[in-house]
Amino acid sequence: MNSKAKPRARWNGRFAAPEQHAEKRRMILREAAQAFNDRGYHNVSLDEVASRLGITKTVFYYYFRDKNHVLLSCVEIGFELAETALAEAETRPGAALDRVVAFTRLYVEGITSDLGACAVLTDLTSLHPSDLDEVRARQRRFGRRLIRLVKAGVEDGSIEVEDPSAAVSWIVSAPLMLPRLTALWGETGAAWLADHYAEFTRRSLSRAG
């Protein structure tokens, strides 16, 4: 992963082809997630997000039904980042600890990427109740997968922890402030940061300590 952050694409009219619909949609999600994190979901209007991109609200509604749809779509991106990282890590060879470490590295790379703000949203309770129920269920499924991986490490002797659930909570939660602290790690770069967290995970979970 490039240690220097890529320039953020702006909405300047060059995405006219139908195949660029997804790219414009993701640009809206990036701006919305950043605004939600900076000021809080209820303090941000769709007009504000549209203004940040230089588009009209009419254009905005071409991509999203309403504000809840925007928040839910941001949450979906966050899930994609975490679930893709775990799916890839689960296929890695070696002990379970190696796979947990691989997940941590990939996970940190994801949440420090251009769309990483979607992974650290805290206003989930602002979702419509039915959507929130589905999100919570998906969170539990993801957590169980990662807990199984940690437990596999306990069984193969590569991991030594008293409470796999608590270990997973730390692994997932500890990096979530990183997108808001770029001033602290911007010079070293996201790749260094991912390696750092991965190594810290290894030391924290391994029998060697």
Automatic annotation (TrEMBL):
<dbReference type="InterPro" id="IPR009057">
    <property type="entry name" value="Homeodomain-like_sf"/>
</dbReference>
<dbReference type="Pfam" id="PF00440">
    <property type="entry name" value="TetR_N"/>
</dbReference>
<protein>
    <submittedName>
        <fullName>Transcriptional regulator, TetR family</fullName>
    </submittedName>
</protein>
<feature type="DNA-binding region" description="H-T-H motif">
    <location>
        <begin position="45"/>
        <end position="64"/>
    </location>
</feature>
<dbReference type="InterPro" id="IPR001647">
    <property type="entry name" value="HTH_TetR"/>
</dbReference>
<keyword id="KW-0238">DNA-binding</keyword>
<dbReference type="InterPro" id="IPR036271">
    <property type="entry name" value="Tet_transcr_reg_TetR-rel_C_sf"/>
</dbReference>
<dbReference type="GO" id="GO:0003700">
    <property type="term" value="F:DNA-binding transcription factor activity"/>
</dbReference>
<dbReference type="InterPro" id="IPR023772">
    <property type="entry name" value="DNA-bd_HTH_TetR-type_CS"/>
</dbReference>
<dbReference type="GO" id="GO:0000976">
    <property type="term" value="F:transcription cis-regulatory region binding"/>
</dbReference>
<feature type="domain" description="HTH tetR-type">
    <location>
        <begin position="22"/>
        <end position="82"/>
    </location>
</feature>
<dbReference type="InterPro" id="IPR050109">
    <property type="entry name" value="HTH-type_TetR-like_transc_reg"/>
</dbReference>
<dbReference type="InterPro" id="IPR041490">
    <property type="entry name" value="KstR2_TetR_C"/>
</dbReference>
<keyword id="KW-0804">Transcription</keyword>
<dbReference type="Pfam" id="PF17932">
    <property type="entry name" value="TetR_C_24"/>
</dbReference>
<keyword id="KW-0805">Transcription regulation</keyword>
